Amino acid sequence: MNDNNILKGGAGTALLILSALIFLGSLVVALTNLGSQGHASFNTSSTLPWGQPIATYLYFALASSGLGLLASLPLVFGFKQYYPVAKRCVFLAFIILIAGMTVLALELGNVFRMLWAIPLNLQIQSAMFWMGVFYALDLLFLLWKFSKLDAGEWDSKTSKQVGIASFIGVLLASGNLALIFGMMSMRPFWFDGLLPIYFYFTGVTSGMAALVFFVYLAHGFNRDKMHPVMQSLMTGALPKMFAALIGGTLLFIAARAITGIYSNNPEINIVWTDYLFASGLYHLSLWVGLLLPFVLMLNGKLRNQVNVQLLVSVLVFFGLFAERFYFVVGGQVVPLFKGTWYPGLIAYTPSVTEWALTIMGWSLAFLLCVLGEKFLNLSAMPDAIANQDKVNPAIA
Question: Terminus-to-terminus CA distance in the chain, angstroms?
């Protein structure tokens, strides 16, 4: 059976036009408001400087890192059953990171000044400086790795070396991003030396959600159109890993919540009790966006159904996006240097401009993905794997 990608035809063209229109529309709204009002068009302030655009960037950056780590399973560690999704993982990691960086660039203010100010100032004691360095290297290695895979170099010496370099780059980039938050002792909700581990794990979960959705989208949500090896993976190892990742994410969140609620530091306790758990949207993202998908994926029969896998991927996608939002904003709702003796928490609701940037980021990622599916063979895999009728059951 051939691998039939419906996005190479008319369906891909229609989605390309739709995503391009949404991207251009949201970009025009964002640029118009930023050009006329600047950062005043954001609902952030000197007391709560990071809002939804930063949460959007965090989500995309970690999803990209998660996809990069998933790609390393076959390309670095030799788990050959994941070869059918390796090339798509590398491509998605690249374009999702591009989308995240675009949102961040527009959030910073002067887009062009950062191109020379950040590298030439060499603020080597700043974690943000190293975030820029490591994510630039991450982009470079992802692009290099994709070029090798696109040329059919799956197991050459150079390809393996680039794969290892890319894996290290992903760890450094997302780990450093975690430390930007985790080293802030004046923000107790964020202050956590184990935050890099939390970011790695939840990043892989969001990356897996993106991977599952875009694999099915490319094949018209019809598993019969997939290559037999891909079909075997989507009914074997991959959904089992997805279930384990969702379960692990829930454990991480539960551990942070329990520790926070019982903490004797009121600047941590009050964020959980009076902000996160006082929000109906947070409860919805937790119970419907993560717990429900975990329960569905625990059932062996449901886990392998196309509709269930699609539903779970979408729910986890949005559930973890909300988690990033509450993580970023939650760390700032207690007034800095005033503490809980200051009455009330800082109120924040995203503005139209901030929503425009978020929609722009999502639509840009979707646009670039459809372009890749339409003009690149993202389902490619080594001939030795493609020629198998199915993945070895002992492996899958």
Answer: 20
Q: Which amino acid is present at 190?
A: W
> How is the chain split among helix, strand and coil, in percent rounded to 5?
75, 0, 25
Return the SS3 of 194: coil
* CA 322 centroid distance within chain: 12
Q: What is the biggest distance separating any 2 CA atoms in the chain, rounded to whole angstroms? A: 67
- Among 256, 268, 100, 278, smallest CA distance to 174 is for 100
Write down the residue that tokens 């780990």 correspond to. 175
Q: What is each CA distance from 271 to 187, 278, 356, in whole angstroms?
A: 11, 9, 27
Residue 383 exposure: Cα atoms within 13 Å on the Cβ side: 3
pLDDT in tens, 329-358: 999 999 887 766 667 889 999 999 999 999
By the 8 A CB rule, do 351 and 43 touch?
A: yes
CA nearest to 386, candidates 251, 191, 232: 232
- The secondary element (H helix, E strand) that includes residue 12 is helix 10-37
Cα–Cα–Cα angle for 170, 89, 378, nearest 5°? 145
Taking CA atoms, 142 is separated from 87, 124, 169, 212, in Å, by: 10, 24, 9, 20
Backbone dihedral region of 221: left (phi > 0), alpha (psi from -120 to 50 degrees) or beta?
Answer: left
Query: What does pTM read for this prediction?
Result: 0.93
